[in-house]
Design a protein that fits this description.
The protein has strands at 3-7, 10-13, 18-25, 33-39, 45-52, 58-60, 68-73, 78-83, 92-99, 113-114, 118-123. Helices cover 0% and strands 51% of the residues. By secondary structure, the protein is mainly β.
Length: 124
């Protein structure tokens, strides 16, 4: 069974930085995609980006490109979402998710494994 545990959210002023972590356990990793999603109150869960575990290939949506970075630490089985130049509109619960595939996807239903989420709040 795959288990994902997130940490690292918090409250930060606009322009600040946070790093969310997603520690994974269970039988994944050589052929999986790790995705990051976020969900603001009253809104749908939106795709933020993903990383392919095997080669570290990453993808970020345009709204966060240049501000956010996704990386992984193989030894720690952990994926990171580094968030810089945060804006109030980045406020949301951030989720990591995992899927046994090497094909990138922005569809939440394609990811069977989810973390519990971590709150990121950006004040203006």
């Amino acid at each position: 069974q795959v288990r994902l545990v997130e940490s690292g959210g918090g409250l930060v002023q606009a322009g600040g930085s946070l790093t969310a972590s997603c520690a994974a356990s269970g039988h994944l990793f050589s052929r999986c995609i790790m995705g990051w999603f976020r969900q603001a109150p009253g809104k749908e869960r939106d795709f933020v980006g993903s990383i392919r575990w095997s080669d570290g290939d990453t993808f970020l949506v345009d709204s966060v490109k240049g501000r956010f970075t996704i990386s992984r630490d193989n030894g720690k089985n952990t994926v990171y979402l580094q968030m810089n130049s945060l804006k109030p509109e980045d406020t949301a619960v951030y989720y990591c998710a995992a899927a046994y595939t090497i094909v990138r996807s922005n569809v939440p239903d394609h990811y069977p494994y989810w973390g519990q989420g971590t709150q990121v709040t950006v004040s203006s």
